[in-house]
Amino acid sequence: MVRQILLLTSCWALASCEYAVRDPFHIGYRVPVQLADGQHVEVETLSNFSTGLPVFYVQDLLSEEECSAIRSAAPRPAMMKSLVAREYQRVTKKRAARHFRDVDVDRDQSLDGDELAQFFKEAADLVDFTWDFLSAYLPKATAAAGDRRQVSQKEFISTDWVKFFRAAKKHHPDWFARHSYQTFVEYSDHAFLQPVLDKVAAVTGLSKSLVRRTAESMQVLLYPEGGHYSCHHDTAPDNPDFPRFLTLFFFLNDVDGGETVFFGTDLNGTYPEDRFAAGEDVWGPIESKCQSVRSCPGFDGSSPFASSLVVKPRAGSAVFWYNMAVTNEGHVGRFYWSSIHGGCPSKGEKWAANIWLHAAHRAGQEL
Ligand SMILES: *[C@@H]1O[C@H](CO)[C@@H](O)[C@H](O)[C@H]1NC(C)=O
Ligand SMILES: *[C@@H]1O[C@H](CO)[C@@H](O)[C@H](O)[C@H]1NC(C)=O
Fold it and tell me: pTM of the predicted model, to two decimals?
């Protein structure tokens, strides 16, 4: 506690410490923070570098009124389906031919289950399927059994993939990497959001002016029943336009399910520590394993992520973490691949909001 105050005060004295990050110390560490309205909250460390990624939790950071004001600032008609870039592409016959060439890695002029799964992922972020469901679209391939199920180029190209993806979305939204609605809300349009930003400053230990200056517009999310978001990073290591060094995620209502899971953490110490410092070579395969909603801890008891940190939604609470190292002056450093996280299926409507803070400068050679 004393150490924390000293660290922060010595930084406040120096403009060059503007971006000082919060020290997680150990898991369970709590630091009291007084908000502008006199209310006290505690910032609790849920995970630190030993378990993969520093993650902090603040209960009751927003009042009920603030939660409902944020939800009202994002009226339903303004909510757009959250899309990943790929979904904008319609898989026409011509595109299908190109997709086929791309995913037929063994060049045997037919696709096996793995190659087909690669196509679904690339074309529409569809990460689960059953052959049963496919039988209406690929009758020849699905008539065969087991290993003999191969989709010929002819059958693949003559399939109406637009219709297929539409039907899959309608009947199995859980098969897609993402199922939610979103909109962006401008702070300047809503007076009540300024104190919310100041609360973000208080709990992260950053200055109010820095938070107001570097916060991306608030992203408000609505997950319908069954809504989810597979594991992902909030920013890319090589994206100089979006160095979102910090994510603060608000839960805006109480709902069962809909947990935020940090797939890059391991609270039981099952994994070697050097995994957390590893790069894309190690994290790429891990990321591909947490795409299906079945990877959520507790889903069927066999998830390889059973010891990951899970945060349950609770109205008004917030969880925040760093996506990359940042120096006191705001220079971007090492990307935290272990900041990979996702939202598990909610058992009712789930409202949430993201505030991303941007680092000031590019890292240049460091990236
Ligand atoms: C993380 O927290 C644990 C206790 O929960 C502690 O044993 C460990 O030393 C901490 N790691 C670091 C790097 O401070
Ligand atoms: C993690 O450790 C806790 C407490 O020691 C235990 O209850 C739990 O089953 C463990 N989980 C995994 C996935 O090892």
Answer: 0.90
